[in-house]
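User: Structure please.
Assistant: Input sequence and predicted structure:
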Amino acid sequence: MTRILGIEVRRSAALGTVLALLVAGAILLYAAPQRWSAGWMALAMAQREYLVLLWPVALAAGVFQARREHRTHVAELFTSTPRPAAQRVIPVLGAMAIAVVGAYVLVAALGIPWIIDTAGYLPARVFVVLAVGALAMIGGAWLGLAVGRLLPSMVTAPVLAVAGIGLLMVLPAGVGSREWLALIFSPMYGMGQYTDYQTVGGKVSLAQAIWLTALALAAVVLLAAGSWRTRVAALLPAALGATLAIMIIPRDEHVANPIDPVAQELVCADGSPRVCVSRIHTGLLPEVVPPAREALNRLAKLPGAPTAVHEDTTTYHPYVVPKSRPDVVLIEVRADRTGHLAWPGRVLPEIIADAINPLNCPDGVEWAVPRAAAAFLTGEEPKPDRYAVDEPAEINAEAVKLLNGLRALPEQEALARITAVRNARLACKDVEGLLTRSAR
């Protein structure tokens, strides 16, 4: 059987399938590396999202392989042999399964060198997510084989590929608010990360695996069927698998985007001042520590200054915000498209700005006064806030004017006025005029 399988791999469409999937997968993977550069789970989920193209390619490859008997006009000869049809299809099923799984794994491996030096957190669920994606590829290839045998036309492969893309894209809208149904029947749904802490629920993966296994079994029965009764019977494993998956999958509000609490846990660098990032970003800690500690050292000139920097682990689905503490500055930590720290030059000024002007006041954010105070400590000129939309030019001009006034003062007087601004913002009080009048 091994020898027969090897011959089938070499002479069938298996090698061409591997090449087609590798090319398509590599293009998708490297077109937007920022989608998966945060870590291993991001890579696994991004590849599952790319099934929108890879799965239809597997479908088309199965159809192309199924046309072999039709092209060579040996179908009647095979049916006249005493070997059962099921036995005849095993080698081609094995060859196509090896091809699509091998290509899927190789595409994932293409991302390893990109993030291996910065991705430190590798949960077991990464392998589960990859395994479910591999199951989807097997089901797609085998379903293509079955359809190709029933409809051995030259147009079947492209039509089925386009239909596969359309199905995966339209299905989520077709189920409405029942996200759990889309999760079962679309292996790419819910794989777009809203946050680096996002994962895939264990029961979701189990339900998906059950449905995809049932789909693959239905395709095998359909491929080996010799009569219309057997072909109808192919619906049975699909129906049973769908029923069982529907019974298992959770139906809670955040079933499509659960948060991994372990990935969200803080991991701190040795030494002081204390600098901590989430576990998913531990590979970025060496890049965060130097500017963060420099910022804390500059802030140490102020009485009651913050003594630690933590990553802001806020999530929006569900909405959870870390508790605000006056001794801790929260900063955003993100990986760029190379897997390293995004915007490293912004770490120091953002820590100082956030320490002076916390963003948790209900009356909104003050701009000119805190911006001038932060610029004094960073030694940089004030700049418009990158998050502000259509900010009036007068705000930054006022900040520049206030900064020049601070620089004209003795250092201790300037620091006293900056401290007054920080204390007022911590209490969510008005800071107007605090930089222009004596704080003593």
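The first strand starts at residue 266 and ends at 268.
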